[in-house]
Design goal:
This protein has 506 residues and is mainly β. It contains one helix and 37 strands. The strands form nine sheets. A five-stranded antiparallel β-sheet has the order 4-28-27-26-25, with no helix packed on it. A hairpin with a 2-residue loop joins strand 32 and strand 33. The two termini are 43 Å apart.
């Protein structure tokens, strides 16, 4: 079990000692130092220049970095060490609770790979746009509800390509942003509409929040398709009641859109507990799965409560994150795989993925089927993420700080090269010893850091290399020169980037 103590130790810059001793005396402009020992360094005079990993890196909840003091994300604790997981990094967008919020890429140890400070962002993931992998998320203001904002697309160097907005005078909601193979975007809108709600226990002059699905051309912003829930699904299908204290009746609550194999759309609505298949041209409902008017006979275990994230898979099955609450409350939330018999119009549960100790996520959440058939689940309002094998074995489990949430969570392969320089900071330990802290936000290919030192910022010599140790690597440097820096190198030894030289004492 990966305990909190182990987690803190992993987050600190800890590693085996690597002693690097020069062979040419104190002259930094002499030959490059060579590795003398892989053991802890012996006491030597301060006339020799060296660099080795430090055990004194800072640890904190939320995590703090000396080289990037502007970044302080909540730490992620891995309670079950990864084994048998699919390749790739984990993508989350943290909100609520303590620490810095925003999109974050982490590895299987919970160590950050990339952090972007955003006040309120959701649905952070990798998608394809114009044939290239891109990062996307929704960004906006959480209050007043319903949340409104825009959709951000970044390239593999973390440069912004564009921002997409809803059309026809609407503002986009956070529940979905899906880039299609046509380079269009499917997105959600929440729009209040005046309705008589007396038949549903509400006021005569009430407001109903309808769900809108739009397809927008990303480049031009043209709205290609628009679907309104109230034109096809009435408030009587909702499982929630109007609340006199609320400004509107959120009867539908659209929370995902997916493209089916025939190019029509699958729309999930939380408050009707239904997945509806929509004709992409006419907007008519082709069938309902679940809810009060299901077109399918719902087999044992196939009914959902307040579900999220309905997706058609390559094998024809449909996956759903079943919250199981509210208004009803089941004994656990789960990811389910459902088979649809279109001849008999029957839904059959094939598999379900649930946390062994039973976990209820009243809101949010998603289920991602990975290329190796593993299943990745973001538990939404519960501060956890998990990966299961195809057969349901729990392979990885991690948690955030209490009250910290990620609307969805994903695993994707990702390779990136930032356009900025690596960052460095120093901490004086003695007259000629410093701790050098280095990091490079978003760089995925760094294997080692080569330490440089010298008497001038433009004349630095190598003191040797230290393995990368998480987001920030701490190294002890012994040098008579007033300037230090570090080079980021790949596993093959290619130089990827260099920090600016830092003058000791500044």
């Amino acid at each position: 079990m990966f305990t909190r103590r182990h987690f803190l130790k992993a987050l600190s810059s800890a590693a085996t000692y690597l002693a690097l001793a020069s062979t040419g005396g104190c002259d930094l402009l002499g030959g490059t130092p060579k590795v003398r020992s892989l053991h802890a360094p012996k006491a030597n005079t301060l006339t020799r220049s060296r660099a080795w990993p430090s055990l004194s890196g800072p640890s904190a909840f939320p995590k703090a970095f000396r080289s990037r003091p502007d970044l302080n994300p909540p730490a992620v604790e891995v309670s079950m060490q990864a084994h048998g997981t699919a390749p790739g990094y984990i993508f989350i967008a943290l909100k609520e609770g303590a620490g810095q919020h925003g999109p974050m890429i982490i590895d299987n140890l919970g160590q950050p790979i990339w952090i972007r400070k955003v006040k309120y962002a959701l649905d952070f993931k990798v998608q394809s746009y114009r044939g290239e992998p891109v990062l996307t998320w929704w960004e906006g203001e959480p209050f007043p509800r319903p949340s409104v904002g825009e959709y951000v697309i970044l390239d593999r160097s973390y440069r912004e390509i564009t921002r997409v907005q809803a059309g026809n005078g609407y503002q986009g909601n956070q529940h979905e942003f899906l880039i299609t193979s046509r380079d269009t975007a499917l997105l959600t809108v929440y729009s209040p509409v005046r309705r008589d709600l007396s038949l549903f226990g509400g006021p005569r002059e009430g407001l109903v929040m309808e769900g809108i699905a739009q397809e927008v051309d990303i480049e031009s912003g043209e709205v290609l398709f628009e679907w309104h829930s109230l034109e096809h699904i009435g408030p009587e299908e909702s499982y929630v009641k109007p609340h006199y204290r609320r400004k509107y009746f959120d009867y539908f609550h659209i929370n995902s859109i997916d493209v089916d194999h025939d190019e029509n759309l699958l729309i999930s609505s939380r408050h009707t507990s239904t997945v509806d298949k929509i004709d992409r041209k006419s907007g008519e409902i082709l069938w309902r799965l679940g809810g009060k008017k299901s077109d399918f006979e719902m087999g044992e275990g196939t009914r959902t409560v307040s579900q999220h994230d309905a997706r058609r898979q390559e094998d024809g099955t449909i996956t759903i994150f079943d919250n199981g609450a509210p208004p009803e409350v089941h004994d656990q939330s789960r990811g389910i795989v459902v088979e649809l018999d279109m001849d008999a119009m029957k839904a059959t549960l094939l598999r379900e993925y649930a946390y062994p100790e039973k976990r209820i996520a009243p809101s949010q959440g998603n289920m991602q089927v990975l290329p190796n058939a593993n299943v990745f689940i973001g538990w939404g309002s519960e501060p956890h993420i998990s990966e299961f094998s195809h057969d349901g074995e729990l392979l990885l489990d991690a948690r955030f700080l209490p009250k910290v949430e990620s609307y969805r969570a994903f695993r994707f392969p990702w390779s990136a090269h930032p356009t900025d320089h690596p960052a460095a900071a120093v901490e004086q330990r003695s007259e000629e010893k410093v701790t050098l802290y280095v990091s490079w936000n978003g760089a995925t290919e760094v294997a080692t850091w080569e330490v440089l030192a010298g008497t001038r910022h433009d004349r630095l010599e190598s003191l040797g290399s230290v393995p990368r140790d998480g987001f920030e690597t701490a190294m002890l440097v012994q040098t008579a020169g007033p300037y230090v820096a570090a080079r980021a190198k790949s596993a093959s030894g290619r130089v990827l980037g260099t920090t600016k030289a830092v003058k000791l004492g500044d």
